Amino acid sequence: MRALKRTLATLGILLLSLPISYVANAESTKDTLHSAEEQLEQNQQTILQKEKEQQAVHEEVKSIQENVQALESEISQNQQSLIQVEGKINEIQQIIQQKKEEIVLLQDKVYAREGIMEKRLVALQHHDHTTIVIETLINSENIGNFFERIGAVTTLLNADKKILAEQEADLKQIEEDKQEIDKQEQLLISQQADLETQKANLEENRVKRNQALVAMQDKYTKLASEISLAEQKKNNIQSQIKTIQSQIEKEEAAAKARAIELAKAKKAKEEAAAVEVAVAPPPSTKNKSTSTSNKSETPKTNNKEMYVTATAYSHEDTKSDLTYLGYNIKKNPNMKLIAVDPGVIPLGSKVWVEGYGTAIAGDTGGAIIGHKIDVLMPSSARAKQWGRKTVKIIILD
């Protein structure tokens, strides 16, 4: 009996303990589920936050891309403006060259007429103008011859008037052409200044564009490192960035190449300047735009100026090493000296030559007639490099 009670008590305890175990297990499961739900909620919030960050980055990237496109448009417009300005500069240079050549032709006409007019003046100095006319008419053989002589005298007088009128018109035209050249040169300076401004704007826009591209690259890199769910987009962006980097590298390589070419050109110019020995420095001038640094600046002076056709020669091209005035050009190949027509430019005078500098008119030549000069160069190669030009000259003394 006692054993039976003990067994029944044990079974009662076991029956009472079963609900407590079930309740404990249920509570543990609920806690685990709640914890999982909390983690899920946290993960969801993290995902939503990353998606917002991703959207913000996309908006920034879109803005940068629009900025890059706007800069590309400005660069394209700058390049078109450069082409237009360079075209205008070429047109102005052609106008100036044409005017110079026209002045040379007119100067030669004036020079030729001066000889004719000089002979006419000498003849009039020996015989009075009216006396010549009277004697011509008195010595007529008959009335028919008298009228013929009247016609001849009238023709001669009209010819003199015509020569004087043509001389006056040509001299006036020369002055007008010189004024037009000065006007076009001022316009050329203005256009070249515009060209420099356009180039500066172009480079500034390129720098801004490159900075914007670098900013885009940083944004995409940050996005790729923070959003692991966007690997495919990250790869596409990285590919796009590589393309942009390649473009930047190409432009930087081109810029370096341009810098090397400019350095070579500057070095060549310095070497060329080092081998030339100037007779005297050119007259002082006002500073002009840096865009005209490759051209000789015209000295401001009241001395006689004109335009001539200029070729070049060296001691290697002559039979004698001595010039007409006795300069030894073989011993002094780098001296500044020109061959001239003494009737146009006095021998021994100091002359400023556009693109050459200040030189001595110390030589003559069989082909140097009228408004033509020959500039002395150190060698035949340098003379050929000079070629044939139409330039302004100023007789300084």
UniProtKB/TrEMBL annotation:
CDD domains (UniProt xref): 3D_containing_proteins
Region (Disordered): 275-302
InterPro entries: 3D_dom, 3D_YorM, PcsB_CC, Resuscitation_pf_RpfB, RlpA-like_sf
GO biological process assignments: peptidoglycan turnover
Record-annotated 3D domain positions: 338-396
Name used for this protein in its record: Uncharacterized protein
Annotated organism of origin: Metabacillus litoralis
One Pfam family hit: CC_PcsB
Gene Ontology CC entries for this record: outer membrane
Coiled-coil ranges (or none): 23-109, 157-254
GO molecular function: hydrolase activity, hydrolyzing O-glycosyl compounds
Signal peptide: 1-26
Domain Peptidoglycan hydrolase PcsB coiled-coil: 105-176
Organismal lineage: Bacteria, Bacillati, Bacillota, Bacilli, Bacillales
PANTHER family per record: CELL WALL-BINDING PROTEIN YOCH
Entry keywords, A to Z: Coiled coil, Signal
